[in-house]
Write a structure and sequence with these properties.
single chain, 356 residues, alpha/beta, Quinone Oxidoreductase, Chain A, domain 1, Rossmann fold, 2 domains, seven-stranded mixed sheet, six-stranded parallel sheet
């Protein structure tokens, strides 16, 4: 092992709210692993769950653990049997480490592998100077890709998977929830040629970003009844497709009310707990088709992402609103929680490259 010694990492030290910066061992790699020096890492809603120590986090996290699962970096060491990457490669990573041998993995459904280990959740993550990853989970980036964009591709994959679960081309689409994934989903729908894109949220800041990313109409649900507005603009038909990104019970209720009979819904947002839902009227009598979305299709979604980014069909740059040194993770989390941000990026080496 050439890269031994200690590194800085943000960890969940114990079963309680909060995180802390710690000095931990640089991870060791196996025969099929690579060691990556993290260049940039981004904050996800999952990280907020872990920070707050809510019921989901309490059920899934076993401290101590290094947190974080969205990143890019440079390969600095490879295991003896690694063939897919080499030292010096610029990579991002799929955060879901699957077994590749179960029935789901063998039938093209690795994104729902029951043996999945997620970095920053089930094993050490990337809010650190270094991370070890299986070579299978690494994705080669163009050398000139901005590190901010490269770091959020994993999260972008959630948006691509959700939008492409149905055919949104030339159709009326409602994206409910304009957090970063919702905003990226809007951009994908625009690139795919959606006829009308409606967006809902409670943050004026994020609704402005929704319009910038391609929404035709954006409604603050604390001030406006979006169902009434959508019905008025669709000749009383409603939307063809609901893409639900918030997990809020009220958003699900409004979304399905706005969905036309025979419409399709793709649901990514995680509810904080069990919620009440009008199954009869929202799904059964409506003849609706509903898709549950988890992770990214391996590796179909990643190739779709590559196409959208390299062609210029989707530009994620406006979504990146804040940059922090990893040492300032507390402030970065505060900004992310405020609703006054798009995507928040952190840099283990500081923010000398802030203006990239």
């Amino acid at each position: 092992m050439t890269h031994n010694g200690k590194m800085r990492a943000v960890i969940k030290p114990e079963r309680s709210p909060g995180l802390e910066m710690a000095s931990v061992d640089i991870p060791r790699i196996g025969l099929h692993d690579a060691l990556i020096k993290v260049k940039a890492t981004s904050i996800c809603g999952t990280d907020l769950h872990i920070f707050k120590w809510d019921p989901w986090a309490r059920a899934h996290i076993n401290p101590p653990i290094v947190v974080g699962h969205e990143f890019c970096g440079e390969v600095v060491e490879i295991g003896q049997e690694v063939t897919q990457v080499k030292v010096g490669d610029f990579v991002s990573a799929e955060s879901h480490i699957t077994c590749q041998t179960c029935a789901q993995c063998r039938t093209g459904n690795g994104h729902i592998c029951k043996n999945t280990k997620i970095i920053g959740v089930g094993r050490d993550g990337c809010w650190a100077e270094y991370i070890a990853m299986p070579e299978y989970n690494l994705w080669l980036n163009p050398p000139d890709m901005p590190v901010e964009i490269a770091s959020l591709q994993e999260n972008f994959g959630n948006a691509v998977h959700t939008a492409f679960a149905t055919d949104v081309t030339a159709r009326k689409v409602l994206v409910s929830g304009c957090g970063p994934v919702g905003l990226m989903t809007i951009a994908v729908c625009k690139a795919a040629g959606a006829r009308q894109i409606f967006a809902t949220d409670i943050s004026p800041y994020r609704l402005r970003l929704a319009l910038r990313m391609g929404a035709h109409f954006a409604y603050n649900v604390s001030e406006t009844d979006p169902v009434r507005e959508i019905m008025a603009l669709t000749d009383g038909e409603g939307v063809d497709v609901l893409l639900e990104m918030s997990g809020a019970g009220s958003a699900l209720d409004q979304g399905f009310k706005a969905l036309r009979d025979g419409g399709e819904a793709a649901l990514l947002g995680l509810a904080p707990a069990a919620i009440g839902f009008d199954l009869n009227n929202h799904i059964i009598f409506k003849g609706a088709t509903v898709y549950g979305i988890v992770g990214r299709r391996l590796w179909q979604t990643w190739y779709q992402m590559r196409g959208l980014l390299r062609s210029g069909a989707v530009d994620l740059t406006p979504l990146i609103t804040h940059r922090f040194a990893l040492d300032d993770y507390q402030e970065a989390l505060r900004v992310m929680q405020s609703g006054q941000s798009g995507k928040v990026i952190m840099f283990p080496d500081g923010i000398a490259n802030k203006e990239e």
